[in-house]
Amino acid sequence: MSVDFKETRALLLRRHAAVFAPDGTAQQPDACMQLFDIDLAKLGYALSQRLRARLQTLDSALLSAMQEHIWETLAAQLGGNRQHTPLFRRFPNNIPSNTEALWMDRVLTHFMQAPDQPCLHCARTGTTHVLKPCRHVVCDVCFDGSNYSACPICKRHADRDSPFFLPDPGYKQKAAAHAPLKLFDLGASMDDAAQVLVRALCARKQAMSPVDTDDFKTLAGEYRLRLLAWIPEQIPVRENIALLFGTLLKHCEPAAVLAAAAAHIGTATDVIRLVAVYSGADPSLQGQVVYRQVPIAKARGMARFKTLFTPGSYWNKQASLPLPVTIKRFKMAKLGRPLRRALLALLESFHPDSLTEDMLRHRAYWVWLGEFLHPHEYHKRYPKVAFAFGVVRKKGPDGTPGPQFETFYAGLEKAVMRKDAVAMVALLRQRPGELARRFDHALRVADGDSAASSAVLAAFTSCAPQFATPVLLTLLALLPTRLHAGETRIYWPKGSVATGFMAPDQRPPCRGRRWTRQWPWSSASCWRAFQASRPWASA
Length: 539
Fold this sequence. Notes:
By secondary structure, this protein is mostly helical.
């Protein structure tokens, strides 16, 4: 059997029950296939007729390699390559009904039972045995040695020659019920099957499971640049984009990979995810939690730990306290000069303001990555990237203070403080989702200015087709309630939806002649905007 695409053949066998075998010229006897049928039946599989006919045309060496590959793949998937022995020999019969009492007996035996001493539970002498290699002392009266196959205390394998383990003459193993066999067939084209699988994985709208992730990496690692022709135009999940191109970077030229990735990567965060996958880290950028020892004197000053230092507390007697710390970095893989230049060129293609602001969202990661990218070596070729790293690092390469930069939200808050609704709307037009969420706020900022109110309403109407469906439906339910003054307002902190804060609602109601003519506040107007942006809603 050819070693090319061995992992791909294995995953297509597991996922699609398809075997890709070449057409040979030999004719093997039926006895060779009958023995293979018996082995496959133990795993619950059977060959189709055309797959059997194709395998019989292979020569002896190739047929043996093919059979071994099929057996190892299916056995590993089903756990057939491991021996599974239940703790209770008569499972599912004779299982202790009172598991709480069994747990208490196990705990007491583990900590207090001693050899050559009366049993803690039945007080009998001469009934205890020391098991090897765990060294637990068990009583053959309190624990039925004829029903256990391992140590009843730690559930690990023990020497079955111990007198504790007794034979069970009355136990007869039931014959296993014959389940219907799963049929696997001859595959037509391995490349076509791999292409279908790649497209299906790229089209996922949720994070992939560990098995899917490993299969995705296998396909990218074996097909390499050929995989680029199979990638769909849209990949919904950002982590999947990083997983695909980050794996290809390990096996292909950086320029070719990043040229194809440019159509799918639109932010600096996508780039840091790509580098994380290339380095073998998780593209979700959740950080790694580690515990560090903090001196007790410093920990006493932290409000969240004050309850630990009550009089007589255990922690008052310790020198330090282990505290969880989230580290925003990962072990970086070697970044060659061609790869560094390709990454810097990709970052340079982004809008400078968006690039800098997106890097500030994950500042700790970019400070860490900057130590390996060396962006100021190419500050003349990539000035926007050098500027962004200067803002992120808060200093230049010579130690001088970094350049000043105003983020989107900083400019927005300045416009709010100036009561400048027109400038506020000009910024919000850049992000339609933020405009929808701040629509009520923008109207309150424009209160008393008919020109500013008209600008807010015009911006809302023009951007409505770009609003997400959940946002439109939320506005449809919320806006009519703003016609009257509310009593209580609830604030939901970001990332903590289970904890809300209540306060009196001091917002003035949105009503008056200046808005009744053109505002999109009524349910009918909101519904018309929703239908205009979502044609399927009119059906």
